[in-house]
Amino acid sequence: MIDPFNRTIDYMRISITDRCNLRCVYCMPQGIRSLPETEILSYEEILRVCTEAAALGIRYIKITGGEPLLREGVPDLVRRLKNTPGITSVSLTTNGVLLNRYLDALYAAGIDGINISLDSLDGERFRLTTGYNGLNTIIRGIHESLSRAIPVKINAVLIDNGGATEWQDLADLARVLPLDVRFIEMMPIGYGKAFKGVAHDRILQELQETYAGITEDRASLGAGPAVYYRIPGFKGKIGFISALSHQFCHTCNRIRLTAEGMLKPCLCYASGIDLKAILRDPDTPKEAIGQALRDVVAMKPASHCFTGTVPEGSLEKRAMVAIGG
Ligand code: SAM
Ligand code: SF4
Predict the structure, then answer these.
(1) Is the pTM of this model over 0.90?
(2) How far is the CA of 321 from the centre of ligand 1 (A)?
(3) Which of 146, 225, 303, 306 could form a disulfide with 249 if both were Cys (CB 3.0 to 4.6 A apart)?
(4) Sign, CA torsion 67/222/77/300
(5) Distance between Cα 320 and ligand 1 center (Å)
(6) Ligand 1, closest atom to CA 192?
(7) Is residue 6 part of a domain?
(8) Would 1 be classed as within a structural domain?
(9) Where does residue 193 rank: exposed (0-12), middle (13-18), buried (19+ CB within 10 A)?
């Protein structure tokens, strides 16, 4: 599918739950109510959408949440998505808490990649950010994934605490392990509005001062929102996903499906199409799902609205955990 700004849309992020077993301060602090299960799309409904989406050119699926591994049956969903004609890649974004339990099954299902969110390698800082005292479990999941040759990306959202330096230890992971470490800029969405992120330019400048020969990896440009750098002697790359300071919307290739079945053209705006209503209406003609997918692609804005001035009513009000980050 081609959107009004001539971008090819071939990637769909699907949130399969709005629940989470962590309480990241910028995403899902204590006290957030989850949707009743009946309001969440079933796997059958998700697969119906994906079959239509694949027929229209969606090739890449990312399963996200909330914490996707909290929902039973993810490996089977991966297997069925992988068997959907047209889908070439199915990957997962997880906080890693339950990864060790499901890794063999995910591997057997043919998972193409796992993104693991990890904001600090300091156990106490990690606990303060996530509410979880189990950093070692996440580290084990990283090693176990790599030992199965599953491509791993570490996603880190850093909070500026005045002298935040965890990025140094996180970046070092890409030196010792064959994985990519990506720094994601804090977005002013949901609870993220209350936090100041760490400026990516500062991290890059310090990396450049520390490592001679660091070069931008132009080969990976445009393949996603990250700008990657290679450092001699590193097994993996360092990436920056800087939605605010270096807007990448001109390369956007994605649409989103929330756990409650809203099809969204952009993370930033409240707009979307209620696909659940379409899926659950027995009178809906068969073509309606495909039409909704085409309509949401036609709705895609030129760029996000985090830094501009758009009417308050058109901004997304939900927390990231409800949308699917
Ligand atoms: N629970 C899974 C995880 O943590 O990977 C999947 C869902 S989580 C919402 C997906 C990603 O969104 C995580 O990497 C998280 O750090 C990121 N995220 C959450 N709130 C954010 C915000 N305000 N700005 C930028 N990234 C955010
Ligand atoms: Fe849960 Fe992921 Fe949000 Fe953290 S970032 S609260 S792990 S959904």
Answers:
(1) yes
(2) 7
(3) 303
(4) positive
(5) 7
(6) 23
(7) no
(8) no
(9) exposed
